[in-house]
């Protein structure tokens, strides 16, 4: 389960995908498979979530990692590079961005 806290010493990554309603389900299927088969099994992986807007034109992916280096190692692997090419076939663009939590509200 994701932890959103300033005190947590973890790396948060938010990736947004710009897609179309016709390609949204294909992209979701590829993302689900990537998490189930590869990403969630990588060292340092903590948790992730997928979010879809109501128009089915954007997918947001929220993931957390023990360390920045864990995320970067996964991202640079041959397996992930191959999966990223599949993602690009199903969307116009995507961009993973690393964030630090500066505040949380319960």
From TrEMBL:
Gene3D superfamilies linked: 3.30.70.100
Molecular function per GO: monooxygenase activity
Keywords per UniProt: Monooxygenase, Oxidoreductase
ABM domain location: 12-81
Annotated protein name in UniProt: Antibiotic biosynthesis monooxygenase
UniProt-listed Pfam families: ABM (PF03992)
InterPro entries: ABM_dom, Dimeric_a/b-barrel
Residues spanning the membrane: none
């Amino acid at each position: 389960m994701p932890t959103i806290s300033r005190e947590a010493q973890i790396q948060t990554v938010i990736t947004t995908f710009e897609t179309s309603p016709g390609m949204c389900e294909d992209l979701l299927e590829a993302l689900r498979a990537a998490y189930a088969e590869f990403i969630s099994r990588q060292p340092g992986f903590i948790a992730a979530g997928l979010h879809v807007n109501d128009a089915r034109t954007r997918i947001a992916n929220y993931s957390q990692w023990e360390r920045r280096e864990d995320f970067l190692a996964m991202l640079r692997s041959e397996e992930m590079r191959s999966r990223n090419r599949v993602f690009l076939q199903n969307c116009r663009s995507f961009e993973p961005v690393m964030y630090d939590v500066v505040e949380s509200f319960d």
